[in-house]
Target: UDP-N-acetylglucosamine 2-epimerase (Non-hydrolyzing)
Amino acid sequence: MDVLSVVGARPQFVKAAAVSQQLQDDHEEIMVHTGQHYDAELSEVFFDELALPEPDFHLGIGSDTHARQTAAMMTELEQIVDDESPDVVLVYGDTNSTLAGALVAAKSSPTLAHVEAGLRSHDWSMPEEVNRRITDHCSDLLFAPGSHAKDTLEQEGITEGVFISGDVMYDTLLQIRDELCESEFDEFTVPDEYVLATVHRAKNTDTRDRLAAIIDAFEQLSVPVIFPAHPRTVAALNEYGLWERATAATRIIDPVNYGQFIKLVEGAACVATDSGGVQKEAFYLDTPCVTLRETTEWIETIDAGWNTLVGAEREQIVDAVRAAADPPAKPDLYGSGNAAVRIVSQLERQVDCAD
Ligand code: UD1
Ligand code: UDP
Model:
């Protein structure tokens, strides 16, 4: 089976690592990196650390408006899909790279498979909501991380080709956790008690008031806030004149590598984030999460009591972080860390049937 995988942004490298490993023995994987993320700390480090295969094609698209970025990716991908004629095009999550891969594959002959299907924030102002809905509705095979996502697809009329696989990010997390050693933090001292923060969502970085309220909330917390900042957030803090306030309120650092990040999540008293992936990683690592958004696609973590939605209101953030505690029970929400095995065996079955 020939599988063409489209990746481009940080969370996709984490997701693809698990599936790539399962594909490598018996199948041909053509890895396409769109270049959506290009800074070494958002891209190269993941390839090194997670032993992802070197991209066969690096499109080098880079940052641009949504339309121009997506269109540039599609133009390149169309030619590659045409030349390589893969059996399957595999896309992950909800980024512009995902959408570009999905639209190209849907109008071509390969089977389009979407990993992380069926997630919805129901917030159409998020570019990710547009990307994932369109991707799901174009896909032949849809790998849902849990039963809620499968039910969502059914409500939207998608019943064919849907499989509950579990979450591939959990596969990668379990693997790296086994490999982590103690000497990982040479560059800075990790305090005994801290809150770990990440912020990069367009809604929070493109609105000064929201970003300022988040920084003000961090400033009011009595424990240190470790803040590995996405370049988009650094640019916004500078643009809004908030950089000094942010550095006074938090220990702002460059993005860290995946192993370091997982360790920071595990050791934190609480995670405050607007990331999708980090909400789940906090859950897997038994760290309560406060989500700096009004909605989440990972709704089961809220229902289970491990995650609290607070938006970007200063008082709500402070109160939720102070109140954060482990709930008594931890349900099994997104599988047991063998999602990639399930995905690859389902792909094999489908491609065999099609032959
Ligand atoms: C993208 C995804 C988002 C995902 C996130 C993961 C879309 C619409 N958004 O958001 O769903 O959660 O990746 O981190 O696909 N930049 C750099 N260096 C880089 C990449 C980006 O400095 O290597 C800066 C540029 O100024 C760029 C901005 O970040 O304009 C935004 O980058 P972009 O890839 O458009 O969106 P993200 O916010 O990274
Ligand atoms: N991550 C990382 N280093 C960091 C911040 C995040 O390795 O400094 C990892 C994190 O463990 C998760 C992924 O990046 O697996 C999440 O990416 P991001 O929050 O940018 O995207 P989202 O999940 O919101 O799409």
Summary: The chain has two domains: 2-167+336-354, 195-323. The radius of gyration is 20 Å. The domain at 195-323 is CATH 3.40.50.2000 (Rossmann fold). The mean pLDDT is 95.
